[in-house]
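Supplementary Note 3. Input sequence used for the single-chain structure prediction.
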Amino acid sequence: MAVEITDANYAEIVQKSEKPVMIDFWAQWCGPCRLVGPVVEELYQEYGDRAVVGKVDVDANPEVSAKFGIRNIPTIIFLKNGEMVDKSVGAVPKNVLAEKLDAIM
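The predicted structure, written as discrete structure tokens, is reproduced below.
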């Protein structure tokens, strides 16, 4: 299962990571988020040893969501060395997310 990123563990998991990071911002009530969720899980399985693939529940973690100015979900951001380098808004195909992750490897 993708790494659960929270306001409390964000610094430890994301900012200190030497690997590229992909974060899916989602909510339980969000229909498109339910479409993207299984894709994020597949990417976690495929990239788990080479990248951090995580999820942030926007309702439970307002600090991390505000940090990146998340206004629409699902939003998936890509970070390298703790800095956002790319993002995707809305439900997108797996290959698009994989290409963005590969680009920062």
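The chain has four helices and five strands. The mean pLDDT is 96.
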